[in-house]
């Protein structure tokens, strides 16, 4: 990039050339900052993961051979999967309803999604902690339906329920932004050609809405994979997830190699999931989701 | 097309699931008990008093405000410049640059915390508020880039060309045309950057020290290390601080929308 701009050694640049140089100069500080505070640290942790404490792939091998780590990985993937599936099931009808609602109802529905999205993560998790404690409201509800005094706080169930709620806005917004663009006349056309309401939905609308589902689901899955606060507050050491183990390894044990290997594993899964969803949503799937989230404010 | 009743019921239930559980923090904050019992047995303002008078909480609030402001300033300057710079790139380079600039939003925070912590430990930036602000800047950059880009996309490129053809040097075009038009996006980006920093827990937890504790870290510690119900007062305030502007924006937006029709 730099070579490109420095190449023509003419004293006077054309106006468009000047604009290009100006554009690059504007872009440069952000790129440098991200490189310094994100890319280089990431590279150094990748190096750590294969050199600390000794060169080799030992850290990665123990990721898949150590029973404890394996259980944590399995639990994390399972929780992320359940949270994603539950999220799709809850968010789909909600986002669909948003497209049907009139302007004022839709404004309310958008607010209901945006307020939790921007509300303190800690406040929301703390609320769940209060609700799920022994003798708390949720336990009471479970008692009413005959489940008895199940202990919730400190279990993977509690973590899964709270994470589903905390991550739901990330699911609804990308879905809504895709559904909004679907031409409703297509389903009507399906019906007028003799398809039932249900089958025209299933064969016409649902496939068109899939990119939104894929964008939301991949975003939630990736975020759930690395979730720290909810499992730390609502789980227990017996129900640890990968983020907690990374925290203990690096912060308490200063085992940068081991923690780093887990981080790199997480990164690889993240990138794989996002790449897969990109195939479904087309380029800009995740970016589109991000736009939906930030831009939702202005709708 | 009208919605089926069951769809309405499901949507209402999901809406309640999204909002109601969090509201529990409000009655909790007026509890007189020293535990997290709900519903509270008696009422008091003790936790609000503690939030605004006890040094550990007030320091945390001031720290968070400082970090939030530094983050908002840095991220807004870098992000606005980058968003404007991106518009001069060709299609391919643009895609790459935007993807790179937005990447912190899709990388799990724990991973960012992990890599920044190990690096900052080596260069001695852990335990400082400025270090936390730098890390938050990387995290907040995407919000600014998105907000400004969205604004620039709605802008007529002819305006800039007109400025240039009338003899304005590129910098004057930037200052007098591009920047004022992008301003609403810049401001909303700054607000988003501030909120994202003010609410960030994981990186702040990693980089904390006894002299560098932000409000979310203090809240986190108040349930994991000690049982301090002041967190319910802090949570209620945070819910309020975030909800009111969004509610207002939506009300204004809905009014404008219905008037336009």
Automatic annotation (TrEMBL), chain A:
Occurrences of domain ABC transmembrane type-1 (ranges): 73-277
GO cellular component: plasma membrane
GO BP terms, alphabetized: transmembrane transport
InterPro entries the UniProt entry points to: MetI-like, MetI-like_sf
Protein name: ABC transporter permease
Organism: Acrocarpospora macrocephala
Record-stated family: Belongs to the binding-protein-dependent transport system permease family. CysTW subfamily.
Domain of life of the source: Bacteria
Pfam families cross-referenced by the UniProt entry: BPD_transp_1
Segments traversing the membrane: 21-47, 72-95, 107-131, 151-176, 204-229, 256-276
UniProtKB/TrEMBL annotation, chain B:
Compartments (UniProt record): Cell inner membrane; Cell membrane
One of the record's GO cellular component terms: plasma membrane
Keywords: Cell inner membrane, Cell membrane, Membrane, Transmembrane, Transmembrane helix, Transport
InterPro entries: MetI-like, MetI-like_sf
BP term (GO), one: transmembrane transport
Coiled coil segments of this chain: none
Domain spans labelled ABC transmembrane type-1: 61-250
Listed transmembrane segments: 57-84, 96-123, 129-152, 231-252
Keyword Zinc-finger listed: no
SUPFAM superfamilies: MetI-like (SSF161098)
Membrane topology of the entry: Multi-pass membrane protein
Protein origin, superkingdom: Bacteria
Entry keyword Acetylation: no
Family listed: Belongs to the binding-protein-dependent transport system permease family.
Entry protein name: Polyamine ABC transporter permease
